[in-house]
Amino acid sequence: MANGGILSHQAALEMTKKIFEARGLPPEEAYQVASALVWANLRGIDSHGIIRIPGYMMRLEKGIVNPRPKMRIVKETLAAMVIDADHGHGQVAITFGMKKAIEKAKKASIGWVLVRKTKHSGAVGYYTRMAANAGMAGLYMGASSPNMAYHGTKAGGVSTSPISMSVPRDGGKTISLDMATAIAGVGKLMEHKALNEPLGEGWALDDDGNPTTDPQVANLPRPLGGPKGSGLSLMFECMSSLMVGSAILEPWLSGVNQKHHQNAVVAAIDISAFVDLSVYCNQSEGLAKAIKGLPKAEGVDEVLIPGERSDAVYEKRLRDGFFVPATIWSATVEIAEKYNVPVPKLA
């Protein structure tokens, strides 16, 4: 087994891009997928980083993901759009969708874009931060196959569907929330399984629907906040999949169609259409400082605003690289060698 170690940002990006190019993605789209995966590692979201390479390659090999999708705009109004992603990678389709949302928001104050028939999109804060960096408020809501228990059941009924919202602060900073509707999403279970680390109590169920902390038998995440998490996920299906005539959950649960795909909503809101952007950023900065100034609970070193932890991790990892555990690196090297992609040395 290959040893784990520190991988630099550039080495990770170059290797990952070449892996996807070797499997048929055009260079620009291979870079987009690689960039988003490595971005997740840089922000400490390792469950959505290069650990995903083997799964992504498996889906490409089985024809689940289209390496060269012909995305098309199906419907369009001044403020809204429907994009058919032709089963391409989410990193490509959702980035395209958010760019279109931002373009529309500049003209109509809001851009509301629905993307149908795409695949796994990675860490979705990647997309909402695009809007925040453009001086806008960004929103993402996603829907996927039923891989999470619905509250009160012991079977998959809804998805671990994520939601993300990002807004700008002063000084180029953002407030950025990115969360799954599960206590711990599938990626987090994958990470714990690869490292053989016990799960938290109440995170997941085994094949028989029993609670477990064993990462090797856990396969069904449980919803965050019980009925709140599963209810949110159900509504994301209603707000995205059903809005574009591409239902996922009901056909899957009834056995009519169990082919994996995802749908999503991305939106951008032009803050300057409602209030001066500088006023907004000043007030969001003031809000952040007020929250951070609250009395700290026992054992807490710093009160954090959504996105601050990953911002700090990003600066460090961009400079120093990030640690890749031996099991994850071994699986990555196996894929790279299979496609004759040079493997960088770890520090």
Structure commentary:
Helix 4 packs parallel to helix 5. Strand 3, helix 4 and strand 4 form a beta-alpha-beta unit. The strands form 4 sheets. Strands 2-3-4-13-5-8-9 form a 7-stranded mixed beta sheet, sandwiched between helices. A 3-stranded antiparallel beta sheet has the order 11-10-12, with no helix packed on it. A two-stranded antiparallel ribbon has the order 1-14. It has 11 helices and 14 strands. The two termini are 16 Å apart. The protein folds into 2 domains: 95 residues, Orthogonal Bundle (Hypothetical Oxidoreductase Yiak, Chain: A, domain 1); 183 residues, Ribosomal Protein S8, Chain: A, domain 1 (2-Layer Sandwich).
Helical amount: 25-40%
Q: CATH architecture of the largest domain, please? A: 2-Layer Sandwich
What's the alpha carbon Rg, rounded to whole Å?
20 Å
Helical segment count: 11
In total, the number of strands is: 14
Proportion of beta-strand residues: 15-25%
CATH third-tier fold name of the largest domain: Ribosomal Protein S8, Chain: A, domain 1
**Topology as H/E string?**
EHHHEEHEHEEEEEHEEEHHEHHEH
* N- to C-terminal distance: 16 Å
